[in-house]
Amino acid sequence: MAKFFILQPMLYIDGKARVFLRDWTGADFPASMAIPPLDQMTAAAILRERGHEVRILDTNVTHEPPQKVVDEVTREAPDFVGLASGWEALDGDLALLREIKKRRPEVTTIIGGPPVTVHPELALADPAVDYAAIGEIDDPFARLADGDRSANLAWREGDEIRTTPRELVKDLNALPFPARDLVPSRRYRAPFLKRNPFTTMAMSRGCSRPLCTFCTTNIYHMHRIRLRSAENVLAELEEIVHRHRIPQILFRDDTFTASEKLVRGVCGGILARGLDVTWRCTTRHDLVNPDLLSLMARAGCHHISFGLETPNDDLLEINGKGATIEGQAEAVRWSKEAGLEVTGLFMIGVEGDTPESASRVLPFATGMQLDYAEFNIATATPGTEFYRRVAPKIAVAEKHKNRWVYNTSIMPLRQLKRMRRRAYMGFYLRPSYVLRRLINIREVGDFGLLAKTAARLLLS
Q: With 80 as the cut, is the pLDDT of residue 361 above it?
């Protein structure tokens, strides 16, 4: 039996605390809003099922500095320390592992995440890293603890890097449910949810239409989608509601409605079993219809997010979205008619974007009567088609932290950031919008969370 610590550390970048999802997205959130680490909880459950002792140290939710993690590892002396990283988090995570190795040189370290999957040599160049996890972290973490290096791992052998073949977990139903008892589940709260506390779960891995040029999901999921059964999903929901007493779910599926049959089975089961749960999800506009959205709402869905990206059909085509503005607007309208809140996810600076086309994002977002909007700068992340397309021009790109942000030469990074800030301010500071949000606050504590989140977005 091995002793395995899985780290979910809060990092400080430019003096500001940052929370990273540490999954295929690499997304970051304000320190006021930690997200239950689904991949890490699943990895912990597998390790525990195989007889290993495992702990998850999530200092994002406890708001403790990285030094607290180093002290805990030193005191508890695990055999293995593992974490997942992202492009912006990589430098900070490697620094943390170096501190751990100084205090506990005998511990075996493993790091995963999109940058490590694409370029394991980036991590393995650091003496503090013993192994790189390739792809989804749960399988390589468990293999390493079992002494099995046959797949999904990379390591140094002298001056060479040894990499084993990629393998995906084929049967998601065979996995144990995430180890939610190993994190402080009652402390995860967010202002954009109907109830708190909340947890994360997924009915699938991968995307049903993995063609968007900028998306990083294929780095992890190899252009494939794998689905769980409705019965397996319902069994986990039963455990969440009855054992953990958590009333709210944030589904982390790339495309929640990839299988209408699965969604109908899960929603029907929620209603038949009388499960008291509310939830939100993300999907594509062309994988919903009025009847399905109505069923989802009756089964507890209160919020749906769509990747709308840009209000330009030509740019949607160039960037592989396979969408039209008309179709997206229709999906938003159907969702509102079903009684759901809707978030629109937008990108500024996608391939082919110009100042003029990017300036249309804000009026498009406000005109659709969205409840929330996210405005992100398009990132040419290594391993994506977007990156491959712009790689010949990378000399004119700007490196922001540890992530490449494509500079179209028409729109420098400074301009992209100004446009994003204007979009956030224009959307969220409308008097009618502010009043509506204040009226909808359900708990006093939510006001503080909302204020901190808003400040971070508007000042980003």
A: yes
Query: What average pLDDT does this structure show over 165-179?
Result: 97
**pLDDT for the residue 6:** 98
Helix (H) or strand (E) holding 375: strand 372-377
What's CA 243's distance to the chain center, in Å?
A: 25
Q: Is 235 helix (H, G, I), strand (E, B) or coil?
A: helix
Residues 203 and 107 reside in one and the same domain = no
CB 218 within 8 A of CB 115: no
Angle between helices 413-428 and 431-440 (to 10 degrees): 60
DSSP 394-438: GGG-EEETTEEE---SSS-HHHHHHHHHHHHHHHHT-HHHHHHHH
Mean pLDDT, rounded, of the chain? 89
**What pLDDT, on the 0 to 100 scale, is given for residue 454?**
56
d(CA 327, CA 313): 10
Strand partners, 309: 346
Other CB atoms within a 10 A radius of the CB of residue 157 amount to 7
Domain residues for the domain of 402 are 189-458
- With b for 16 or more beta-carbon neighbours within 10 A and e for fewer, the 87-113 pattern comes to bbbbebbbebbebbbeebeebebbbbb
Residue 218 lies in a domain: yes
388: CB partners within 8 A, 6+ apart: none
State how far the Cα of 185 lies from the Cα of 442, in Å rounded to an integer: 20
- Pair of tokens at residue 82: 């593992």
The number of distinct structural domains making up the chain is 2
Radius of gyration of the chain (CA): 22
